[in-house]
Amino acid sequence: MLLIYSPNSPFARKCRILIAEKNLACEMAVHLPFAADTKVPDYNPLGKVPALVTDDGRKLFDSRVICEYLDGIRPTPRYLPEDFNERINVKRWEALADGTADAIATLVYENRRTDPSKRSAEWIARQQAKAEAGLAEMAHELGDRPSCTPSGYNLADVALGCLVLFLDLAGKFPMPDFQVRSKHPNLAAHAERLMQRPAWQASVPPG
Ligand SMILES: N[C@@H](CCC(=O)N[C@@H](CS)C(=O)NCC(=O)O)C(=O)O
After folding, report:
1. How far is the CA of 11 from the centre of ligand 1 (A)?
2. pLDDT in tens, 116-142
3. Is the shortest distance between the CB of 9 and ligand 1 below 6 Å?
4. In order of start, what are the domains of the chain with their CATH numbers?
């Protein structure tokens, strides 16, 4: 297998963590989607990372499909529960965390416009509101539990952790400081617990 990723991507980090936690053999290749000579569209027509080339030659995207694939080929330990209702709960958490990351990515791209006069303050505010609402909902739903869902550490926690730890790049990326540690200390504490695992330490976004 071959994973195409960029080191800062919270979406790609989900896949990198599953690969490490499951001890899967997978080559890793860094491709930056915004580089002028990027090869990402050779792997994903949408031009986004992550993408995964399977051993039988399929090109998979996006991170949710890749994570489900990785969990399917090596189901121990399981990151998506077998039970239907539990699995839907985990996938809902993943959609919430990834959707929040999507809003933040959109906001960053808008702030990176080469001509600042083309930046839309309205569009930025809309994305920021989505991100804040997503974080608030996750903080509320997590409460003081040690994992997002009753089934323990799984893909819900991976998606949440990758999002929260991506926010540490606020000084390096053109995005607001969402002040997770003061506004949502339970999210920050959860991310810190995850950071004790080797797979998380090995995949810190450099910024
Ligand atoms: N829903 C996608 C989102 C992937 C995504 O937005 N990746 C960003 C990097 S963090 C990207 O490649 N952006 C390039 C672009 O939007 O053209 C997933 O989960 O894989």
Report:
1. 7
2. 999 999 999 999 999 999 999 999 999
3. yes
4. 2-73 (3.40.30.10), 84-197 (1.20.1050.10)
